[in-house]
Write a structure and sequence with these properties.
The chain is of the alpha/beta class. 34% of the residues lie in helices and 18% in strands.
Length: 175
């Protein structure tokens, strides 16, 4: 899975992965998550929590080792990214700075399907599903399901379509 994470940022070799670990805090956060998660799955105590704490202090990202995250996770700017323990993320998910994937009530965690992009400051909260290849705009708050191939923005997040975007642009031009 680590090689798929490396490929997602354009790194193909083991030497490239070693370099990326030192110069790319987003890749470092993902690699450390993979190690902590693997240890947690094997029932090894203490070490996954220590690795998580180290990840927070060295990258600014707080990724729970209990989260289920498929390959190809990319954190271009990891500071402030939080992924809670019950979250499930598909393949090739991009999360930008300040994104929170967390619960809204006890035991209610989000699922992000393959190819989802969540932009800076957005929050995905509660038992919601964000569909394949969906986009969540900056600072949006997702508390309802998002259909595949859809873009949502706002608080609470709502679907944006081409017609509403044209209408919004016309309003700005006439003000």
């Amino acid at each position: 899975m680590i090689t798929a994470d490396a490929r997602a940022i354009g790194v193909e070799s083991y030497l490239g992965m070693a370099k990326a670990y030192w110069v790319n805090p987003g890749f470092r956060a993902v690699l450390l998550f993979r190690v902590a998660s693997g240890l947690a799955k094997r029932g090894i105590p203490f070490l996954p929590g220590w690795i998580r704490s180290h990840t927070v202090s060295s990258t600014g990202a707080d990724l729970s080792p209990q989260a289920i995250i498929d390959s190809g996770l990319v954190l271009p700017h990891p500071v402030g990214v939080v992924i809670g323990s019950g979250a499930m993320l598909g393949k090739n998910v991009f999360l930008f700075s300040g994104v929170v994937i967390g619960q809204r009530e006890t035991g209610a965690w989000p699922t992000l399907e393959d190819g989802v992009n969540v932009y800076a400051g957005a929050k995905v909260l509660g038992k919601v599903r964000v569909g394949k290849d969906a986009k969540v705009g900056a600072n949006a708050v997702v508390i309802n399901d998002v259909d595949p191939h859809t873009t949502v923005v706002g608080i609470p997040a709502e679907k944006v379509n081409a017609e509403s975007e044209k209408s919004h642009s016309k309003k700005r031009l006439h003000q």
